[in-house]
Amino acid sequence: MRLGLIGLGRIGAFHAETLSNLDAVETLVVADAVPAATASVAEKFGAEPADSPEALIASGVDGVVIAAATAAHAPLLRAAVDAGIPAFCEKPLSAVLADAVSVAQHVEDSGVAVQVGYPRRFDPAYLAAYDARVAGDLGWVHTVRSTTLDPAPAPRGYIETSGGIFRDCSVHDFDTVRWITGQEPVEVYATGHAHGDPMFAEFGDVATAQTLITFADGSTGVVSNTRYNPRGYDVRLEVHGTGDSVAAGWSDQAPLRNLEPGSTWPSAQPWGFFMDRLTDAFRAELTAFTELVSGARTESPCTVQDALAVAWMAEAADLSLKEHRPVTIDEVK
Ligand SMILES: NC(=O)c1ccc[n+]([C@@H]2O[C@H](COP(=O)([O-])OP(=O)(O)OC[C@H]3O[C@@H](n4cnc5c(N)ncnc54)[C@H](O)[C@@H]3O)[C@@H](O)[C@H]2O)c1
């Protein structure tokens, strides 16, 4: 197939490498707002450069991967579905919730297949935890813990336009806990602080946050995030039920110093960043998108409604942090 890729920054250049190695992708067409980025990625991965996102969409692509900066997601998603082209869109749909609601409605009205980028849904251990819950092996799931600890803050320009830690980082955990438990969240309580680079306080953001979630069936979730975890990129999950307890991300590369006497775990080089921690998940995620484009897969593995549910959680967490009180999802809706 002929696949487009728009946005060639940190994640876009990484996706270019993955996509150029997928058997299903015969031609990769790339475009970035910065022409030098387009030229360099096209040359590096043998891709076809397009002069602009509009030119790429008009160039007869079968599907398009949108990995541009967050502010460009909604307009590019609209342009893709208006042209009848299936799209993969990196999270979030938009940093502005009203915009996310409106673009999600636009996608639904178009009937065009769209997959939103939440790669943990494709991590083998996360998938096994999901399967165990669906199979009933865990009994009634009363507690889910999801953790994302970044080694260091992203550049200032990224943080400034990210929409804050809940919309940028915690959303991965919010999607995970909702997907893994199969439960809708009803209330969140978030706390955090801006310790670290002064830019966090300047942008009204925090560098570390914890979010407590109550689900519709009364079960509970705990989400932990920070921009400062110099030991490595820590992405982990624990699911505890009345039948069993399971975990994901507790590999030999977990970025933790285990102080149990005599234990040599974990012994390998810790995960450095999302590129090495989630390489296989990203490949599986983009493979799923090519299946959606070819028709081999009929249902999006992560819909705009899933992304919207997560956006409501982020909105509630943000309000909870600011007002220092529990906030229901209904209230922000
Ligand atoms: N799913 C994940 O795990 C994951 C990981 C990292 C980033 N992301 C998301 O991916 C997006 C990009 O993140 P990043 O870290 O690569 O950012 P980045 O700043 O490194 O790159 C963004 C790129 O988009 C380009 N761009 C901006 N507006 C554009 C437009 N209108 N048309 C074409 N190109 C445009 C910029 O020139 C830049 O090259 C963000 O929305 C982020 O939330 C997702």
Automatic annotation (TrEMBL):
Q: Which residues form the Gfo/Idh/MocA-like oxidoreductase N-terminal domain?
A: 2-118
Residue ranges annotated as coiled coil are none
Checking InterPro entries in the record gives: Gfo/Idh/MocA-like_OxRdtase_N (IPR000683), GFO_IDH_MocA-like_dom (IPR055170), NAD(P)-bd_dom_sf (IPR036291)
Alphabetically list the UniProt keywords. Oxidoreductase
GFO/IDH/MocA-like oxidoreductase domain location is 131-245
Gene Ontology terms for molecular function: nucleotide binding; oxidoreductase activity
A Pfam family matched by this chain, by name?
Answer: GFO_IDH_MocA
UniProt key word Oxidoreductase? yes
Similarity annotation: Belongs to the Gfo/Idh/MocA family.
Under PANTHER family, the record lists: BINDING ROSSMANN FOLD OXIDOREDUCTASE, PUTATIVE (AFU_ORTHOLOGUE AFUA_2G10240)-RELATED, NAD(P)-BINDING ROSSMANN-FOLD SUPERFAMILY PROTEIN-RELATED
State what protein this is by name: Gfo/Idh/MocA family oxidoreductase
